[in-house]
Structures are given as C-alpha cells and as structure tokens.
User: What shape does this take?
Amino acid sequence: MSRSAHPAGPRHADVLPDGHYVAPPADLNSLEEKVWARTVRRHDDGVVAVGGIPVTRLAEEFGTPAYILDEDDFRGRCRAWREAFGDDADVFYAGKAFLSRAVVRWLHEEGLNLDVCSGGELSTALSAGMPAERIAFHGNNKTVHEIERAVEAGVGRLVVDSFEEIVRVAHIARRAGRRQRIQIRVTVGVEAHTHEFIATAHEDQKFGFSLAGGQAAEAVRRALKLDGLELVGIHSHIGSQIFDMAGFEVSARRVVGLLADIRDEHGIELPEIDLGGGLGIAYTADDDPSEPHDIAKSLGEIVTRECESAGLATPRLSVEPGRAIVGPTAFTLYEVGTVKPLEGLRTYVSVDGGMSDNIRTALYDAEYSVALVSRTSDAEPMLSRVVGKHCESGDIVVRDAFLPGDLAPGDLLAVPATGAYCRSMASNYNHALKPPVVAVRDGGARVIVRRETEEDLLRLDVG
Ligand code: LLP
Assistant: This one.
C-alpha cells in the first residue's frame, strides 16, 4: 500500500491515524505480482488459484485459516540462490523461518544446506534425512543436551556465541572423541535499517562477540587453544528484512578485517566466512527486494575485494536466507466472519485467524497486503482493517487495506508473503488451533503440517 503525504482535499476515510494518506489501488481485483507466490493467478471466473488449484477448493478441502505454500516457487527460489552463489559458496536455508520435514527434503533435493537453532529444528532436519554435515547449529544459549546431540549427530558446524559455550562445546566434543568444527559469531557494530527487534549487529544486544570491544579476538584465542574444536570461520548476521546492501558491505569488511588480524596474530588463515541471512522480501507494493543473482554478485565482489586488499586468499562464503526463500511462497487463506463499518473511521473485517497465526503485525508493526480471492468485485474500495478473532484489540493482521465495499461473511481473503515467521511463530493464544500448511504443486495439494486439533491441546494438559 502506498503511503504518502496527503494531497489536497482528503477524503476523510483515506487519512490514516498517523496522518498519512493511502491511495486506493486502481483495481482491487488485480494481484500485485511481487507479493504473491509465483503460480498464483486469478482465473476467468474471478477465483484466485495457486498451482492450478482454486482457493475455493482449497478452503473446502482443508478448511480455513490455512497457510497455502507453492512448492514450485519454493524449489525455484532454492535453485535461484544455489545457482547465484555457485559452487564456491554455500547456501544455508534458515529453518527458523519455516521448517517441516517436506521442506527439509526439498532443500536436500535442491542442494541447499540448513541452519537450525534448536533441538526441535535439529530433530526435524535429521528425521527428514538432511545429512548432518550439511547442518549448521546456531543459538546464543544452546543447552548442554542440544550441544551433545549436535556433536553426536556430527553437524557440519556449530556457531559459538559466548565464552561459556566455547568451553562447553570443547568439553562435549572431547568427551565424544570428536573435534567439532566451529565458527565464531561476531557482532560487527552495524545499525541495520530494520525493526529494532530483528536487528542483530549493533553493540547493545545479546548475540555474538563484539569486534570493536575485542571479545571476538579473545574468543578466537581461546577457541584455538582448546582440543576438541576446529575453528573454521567467522559468522555475522546483521538483522532481518533488510533491503540496503550497505550493511552487508560493512559487515563483510569488518569480518575480513578480523581474518587479517587472526593471520597476523596466529599465522593462520581461516577458510570460511558466513554473512548470515536477512534479505528483505516484498510484503506490499512498496517493497523492492533484490534478486539472488545481484545479492550474490555484490557479496562476492565485496569479499573478494576486501580479501585482496588484506592479502588474504578468498575464504569460502556462505549465506543463510530464510525469509527470502520461503516468505513469498505462501499466503494465509482466511474466511471473513464479520464486517463492521465504523462511521468516519474504517471498516473492521474479522477473519477466522489472527495474531495466533501471524504475530508479526502486532510484534513488529509489519505491513501486509490482502486481497479478496474467492470472487472479483466492482464495488467501491473501502478502507479496512483486517483483524483476527482474539481477545485483544492489537489482534491486527493487516493494519490498512482497501477491500471491496460489498465484502461479506463467507468471502475468502488471502494475505500474501506469510511463508516466513508466521507458522513458525504461531501460538495457541486463546487455545487457537494452529492452521495447517498445505503444499500445492501442478494441480495437486497435500497437507505437509496438519491442523492442530483440540485433542492435541488436551493431550498436553495433563493436570
Ligand atoms: N541466520 C541467522 C543467524 C539468523 O539469526 C537468522 C534470523 C537468519 C539467518 C535468517 O534471517 P532471514 O533471512 O530469514 O531474515 N521473527 C522475525 C525475524 C527474526 C530473524 C531471526 N534470525 C520476523 O518475523 O521478522
């Protein structure tokens, strides 16, 4: 949705509470390509389809709310990242964005590696056949049990995040008769231009070892002294939903600077650097994400240049996109339950999900778009707010949206770009049942994560 300073003569309903003017889109029936999964189309009968399947059929068969994931799009994005980075680099999909066993198999088949950050993600990966050496284990406070499992499984790398953890991993690896490959997570001091809660490279936060403060260099010293550890590289992740490559440039420069310092102090050149994930996607028409090819080119050039000027051999680069792969491949399908016009303000459209299936609007002020997908309409646009069914007024799915004025209970709405951090951050607030994830491909649809049932909830309630 395009927000701009208000032109002369506002229509009352178009002025948002923050004083911005929102222009109704020219045609509410057209779908803004960049926010939708690749195979999404509106058919001649007005119904939107994905993978060739009309959403009305998906709603009938699988119910609403449901996350509908375009498998071809997911695989296509994996391939695009793989091909863009080529054989001299590794792409680790960040499982926290969305992970299921089907997803693990797709990643494996498409030649991607996997970043996990908990025992649960590790189990999912291993149980679906991801080779352990292609898994990286992250986290700022991994439990002893998680480290033991990761080391026993033989994960390809463990990214250490604290002085305590360096000692813990070394001890566990030694006891298991192993030498664990590790990377050291550093904080490069970049202020990424994104929401405070998803920026991770400024100094005042919990992740990594500070470069500027000297902790990173000290972590390297300690890691090099311990049997049981094989220090292979340096890791930096600057944040999430970032469009500006400048932050990555600074990060790469500082990480390479540390590699040069390590060479000078210890006489070794570490063979790997990982620049993390964080590339932004289009949630609304205003967002302009870069293509994997351009991202790979720009990161590759920065690293090569910095290494050349430091007199280092170029290390093997890896990246960890999560959102940029899965985010655009799914939408959430909801049914409208109530339509409540508030005179002079806006119309509240309640759907059958809400903050339990998408917490991002409430948590990060995330902006989403929405479309009526079960039919077309020529009715006048009405300024709407799409809200859920939970017991608080912050339960907003799409803050500002234009929807057709004849919207009615029973209509289906779809919110695009919900593939990342929606199912994976879903909750049971109000004892809501988490929606299923339905994968569509070539005219076929199958549940890859089933809908929760009341029995699932009651099974945990053992009191
Ligand atoms: N690598 C590391 C070490 C990370 O911590 C993350 C995300 C990623 C890779 C993947 O980042 P991505 O490419 O998906 O942006 N819940 C928030 C996002 C938190 C991201 C946490 N770490 C959201 O909904 O926006």
About this structure: Residues 138-321 form a domain with the TIM Barrel fold (CATH 3.20.20.10).
